[in-house]
């Protein structure tokens, strides 16, 4: 199935800081996070170098993606870690695997 909207989780190099976001262009958003981390550091993801995609979910409709993002942001860190580990056991960067 083709998805137009994504909820994603970015992590820093040591996987100690997480950033949860929603977008309709995940490749462009990853590039923006990377650019900000290397330059202006204006965003949370840029400031904390959250440039590694470790989790994502696709949605057909924006309201679904936004609702899921809000849900994930309320979770405790342990629950987020479990979600990521089930999807990506080694917490590898998925930056080059997303299409």
CATH class division: Alpha Beta
What is the average of the pLDDT values? 95
Strand order across the largest sheet: 2-1-3
Q: How many domains comprise the coordinates?
A: 1
Short description:
This protein has four helices and three strands, in the order E-E-H-H-E-H-H. With 99 residues, it is an alpha+beta fold. The chain has a single domain (5-87), classed as GIY-YIG endonuclease, CATH 3.40.1440.
Task: Please tell me about this protein's structure.
Pfam families: GIY-YIG (PF01541). It comes from Maribacter polysiphoniae. InterPro entries: GIY-YIG_endonuc, GIY-YIG_endonuc_sf, UPF0213_domain. It is built from four helices and three strands, in the order ββααβαα. The protein has one domain: GIY-YIG endonuclease (3-Layer(aba) Sandwich), CATH 3.40.1440.10. With 99 residues, it is an alpha+beta fold. The longest helix is centred in the N-terminal third of the chain and has 13 residues, at 26-38. The protein has helices at 26-38, 44-47, 62-74, 77-87, and strands at 5-11, 18-23, 52-59. Strands 2-1-3 form a three-stranded antiparallel beta sheet, with helices on both faces. The chain is 41% helix and 21% strand. A hairpin with a 6-residue loop joins β1 and β2 (18-23). The mean pLDDT is 95.
